[in-house]
């Protein structure tokens, strides 16, 4: 476990905090890497066994599907995890493509540009990436029949944000100047530069993914924990406890 210190100018009493006797494990974008997710869950379990605490919450920041090879298996792991631990699942922009494709099959051409073909393959379908509109409709019907009800419900029930103590957890980020409770769904799932380039306070420390970075990107107003797992093999987990921060 890698510990991280806040800025030297921040005295411990001034650091952002979460409630006492609580530990948060926040996990970045998984993108179809079931192998990395299973390993990370095992390491979280080992950490909880080694360092017991009264209450823990695991928060996953969305983008469970696409790009990597095992999207279906990732959702199976997440559903199983929920039955054993307090887990909070946020919605990522990639999850929006599932319902969009089912209701409007022609969106396949857009979805495949961001790794959607890998998701369909993981469900046993055989898209070529060259489907015309009729083939897209057939593929959407086949996906609807193949998609388990539990997976459909899982995606439908994903939340847009989670707040705890001095932290606000979200997939992509927030629109500067808009109160956190009034953010639009599109910004929470898709925003980039307007959020990433903003250096002022958002009201809470925003923990987010969506924009891959080589290392966790820790700023005074936000923490990015998307380390491009599907390409780098690095799935990041941020641990928050009291006013301390570390990485598993």
Give a short synopsis of this structure.
The chain has 248 residues and is α/β, with parallel strands linked by helices. It is built from 10 helices and 11 strands.
Protein described:
34% of the residues lie in helices and 18% in strands. The chain has helices at 34-50, 71-82, 96-103, 108-112, 116-122, 133-146, 149-156, 185-190, 193-196, 229-232; strands at residues 2-4, 22-27, 55-60, 87-89, 161-164, 167-170, 205-208, 217-218, 222-224, 237-241, 244-247. The chain has a six-stranded mixed β-sheet with strand order 1-11-10-2-3-4, with no helix packed on it. It has a five-stranded mixed β-sheet with strand order 5-6-7-9-8, with no helix packed on it. α1 (34-50) runs parallel beside α2 (71-82). The protein has a single domain (20-247), classed as Metallo-dependent phosphatases (Purple Acid Phosphatase, chain A, domain 2). The protein is built from ten helices and eleven strands.
What key attributes describe this structure?
alpha/beta; Purple Acid Phosphatase, chain A, domain 2; 6-stranded mixed sheet; 5-stranded mixed sheet; disordered N terminus
Averaged pLDDT, please? Answer: 93
From N to C, what is the helix and strand string?
EEHEHEHHHHHEEHHEEEHEE
Based on Cα principal axes, name the global outline: globular
Span between N and C termini? 5 Å
Supply the CATH superfamily name: Metallo-dependent phosphatases
Strand line-up across the major sheet: 1-11-10-2-3-4
Number of domains: 1
CATH topology: Purple Acid Phosphatase, chain A, domain 2
